[in-house]
């Protein structure tokens, strides 16, 4: 019975699947699947017919059937892909083009088992982890549809990557490896809400990718008000672990994500606490204005954002003040929740 997407296999898996005397074919298949974005064995023109038939028999090849819609932003060049792998396993992926790079924000779970109070995904029903193939298909579909390469990957879409650790890391390694997309580890970021066992494993395994820690407040009591996970894995424990093991990570490997919420986490005490943690961990800070409006939370004004940003930057921390790309298509941070599209929509082919 076919139960696995072909995209879930890495080169080693293909080598085990193939007959021992035809190992070079494994590299060919792998090349088609992971470099040339092939979605069907029929596209693999240099393989013998019998092998294409065997591939079709042994694996799932859904083609583009999971693509529900692509919504393009009228405000910027971003696009949001809505995909359904199974009737109840729906996700979104966001295409973020910049001047000299194309970033893709990929999902790792359908919904999320956590419920950060500012995040639309957390309000959805959690329906399961994505396989490595389902994670990679988001990249390959985007490359095909946009007819451009993806230069940066951020695991910051739906779900908590460290609650789907094995599949996320398998996908990240395929994206990085020479037999996959060859994307530099500096351009692949795994973002966690603070799952300490996952962080420990990531460090222990010396994973080479960037690690982004979603803090959103560096004051534990305040953080607990917007992130339930603070009660399970307190930030003080995470900071202690990362501090004790900082030498295991590269200088530029660690980043703190911070969503700015008006009248909540943007005072001088908040800035001080954030600065201290970032300084202690030698981490960059990525500031993101709130994009949702749950529980009375509000987005700060541009001048409030500027003041907060300057108050930390002036103390010598590298701090990125990110705009909110894809906001008009509900594709910005915290907005992924499969709302019915209302804008410029391209239906699946
Ligand atoms: S912010 Fe991340 S971890 Fe929190 S609910 Fe949303 S998807 Fe889940």
Q: What does this entry look like structurally?
A:
This protein is α/β, with parallel strands linked by helices. It has two domains: 6-58, Orthogonal Bundle (DNA polymerase, domain 1), CATH 1.10.150; 67-347, TIM Barrel. The protein contains eleven helices and 13 strands. The strands form two sheets. It has an eleven-stranded mixed beta sheet, covered by helices on one side. A two-stranded antiparallel sheet has the order 5-6. Helix 1 packs across helix 2 and helix 4 crosses helix 5 (165-176). It starts with 10 loop residues before the first helix and ends with a strand. Residues 340-349 have low confidence and may be disordered. Iron/sulfur cluster binds next to loops.
Topology of helices and strands:
Elements: H1 11-17, H2 23-35, H3 49-58, E1 67-72, E2 79-86, E3 89-97, E4 102-105, E5 109-110, E6 128-129, H4 132-146, E7 152-155, H5 165-176, E8 188-192, H6 196-204, E9 210-214, H7 220-226, H8 229-232, H9 235-244, E10 254-260, H10 268-281, E11 284-289, H11 302-313, E12 319-321, E13 345-347
Parallel strand pairs: 4-7, 7-8, 8-9, 9-10, 10-11, 11-12
Antiparallel strand pairs: 1-2, 1-13, 2-3, 3-4, 5-6
Helix pairs in contact: 1-2, 4-5
Iron/sulfur cluster binds at residues 112, 114-116, 119, 121-122, 158-160, 193.
